[in-house]
Amino acid sequence: MTTTAPPVTDAARGRASLRSLGALRRLDHRGFVIGLVLCTLAGAAVRLMNVLWWRPTTSRPGFLGYVLAGDASYYHWQANAIADGQWFVDPYLWANRGESVASAAHAPLYTLYLSFWSALGVDTVTGHRLASCLLGVAAVTLIGLLAFRLAGRAAGLLGAGIAALYPGLWINDGMLLAESIAIVAMVCALHAMYSFWRTPTTRNAVVLGLTCAVAGLARTELLALFAVALVPLALTIPRETWGERLKRAVVGCVAGALLIAPWAIFNLTRFEEPTLTTTGFGAALSAASCDAVFYGDRIGYYDNCFDGPWPSPDLDESQRDAYSRDAALEYTEEHLSRLPVVAAARIGRIWGVFKPGQTTSLDWSVEGRGRAPSWIALFSYYVLVITAVGGLVRLVRHRVTILPLLAAPIIVTFAAATTFGVTRYRAPAEVAIVVAAAVGIATLARRGRDDAADRGGGDGAPVVPEAEDRAGPAGTLAQR
User: Fold this and answer.
1) pTM of the model
2) Count of domains in the chain?
3) Is residue 284 part of a domain?
4) Largest CB tally within 10 Å, which of 123, 265, 311, 449?
5) Domain assignment present for 289
6) Cα(324)–Cα(309) distance, rounded to whole angstroms?
7) In the predicted model, is pLDDT for residue 464 greater than 50?
8) Is 108 exposed, middle or buried, given 0-12, 13-18 or 19+ CB atoms closer than 10 A?
9) What's the pLDDT tens digit per position in 355-365?
10) What average pLDDT is seen over the chain?
11) Residues 222, 182 contacting (CB under 8 angstroms)
12) Which of 480, 472, 468 is nearest to 198 (CA)?
């Protein structure tokens, strides 16, 4: 008796087309591996030149060097405090007075990473900047691998090449800010999302939950990956019962919650106000809630808005943050009719469509991101966004989900709308932009080769696609 195999759906073909990293062991991918290594080395060279030559560490004010200030100072000194045995204390009180006072103004992952290097004796500002460059170098490789999984060798090399050279990524690696580790965490989460989408097992659900948690420990707003990516991916698993779908969603969320739990419990035992992640929410709201950024020339940006009443110094960090939060919410309520305009300005700034010139000027004059790199990053960003749209279209046509690539842009947009629009907050979304742009450029390049072959006519030897494309879905699945 002959049995007929069930038809292969377009969605199944899309899942099957996702390449396995195990395929890189094949000899016909040796050229890709060599190219990926070269792109990674180029990325390392650019980042080293930025830290050691273009913008060396200095204590002199100006725009030609890097001056430790603001949040970067917090991360640097708190990391050194942890290496000295003082876990997550106020770095300024520790450095200036030797006092150990609990602090959780920022998510913990970047500080923990720097503290590892501090414990090894790499505890200077330049040392920490170089340690951050290692994160950027890792991101180059991971982005290249993700683009390879989605669209093949050409896209993978383009993704790694763009990640190596694009200032929108490497600027962060010299700034001593959490964006460096957030980028790495985001691309790891994207790998996990696509692995789960391709093979929605319980194991992959756990890995996805853990990577989402790691991203949230890098930047707090990325905790929204659970709601924006993990749960939707689990609830849309094809050919599964709702019970199995819910099981995968719950397993992923529980795995992530278990990873976050130690940090949350630690904070609950240290502060008077309930604190699960950070004590910086009030400060972020405060910087975005005054006339200067609601009605002034810097609408949608941030300013030093808090003007009292100043809390007692005897209060802990969570209680002082509550003062800033309450003042910000009170101001917003009094100017609620203006909020839609301000939110639109915030979103416009972070996506480079509202006052991009002023925002870029503020990037280097206020944020200290470097004048020339900031302007190059702006125009490069526009090119990447245009090509990224083509990449997303290509993925949709090949039945590959784009939800993972849209997750960070959605979160970044919401975060900007509720706080303020500053370029570096776009960093997690830059990963998706670079990957989609690589897919788009690779598609255009292949189309150009096909058109050239068609114009050649006559004997018309066909253009041979990449080996993994010749193999088709079955060949790709065999590489699992």
Assistant:
1) 0.91
2) 1
3) no
4) 123
5) no
6) 9
7) no
8) buried
9) 999 999 999 99
10) 90
11) yes
12) 480
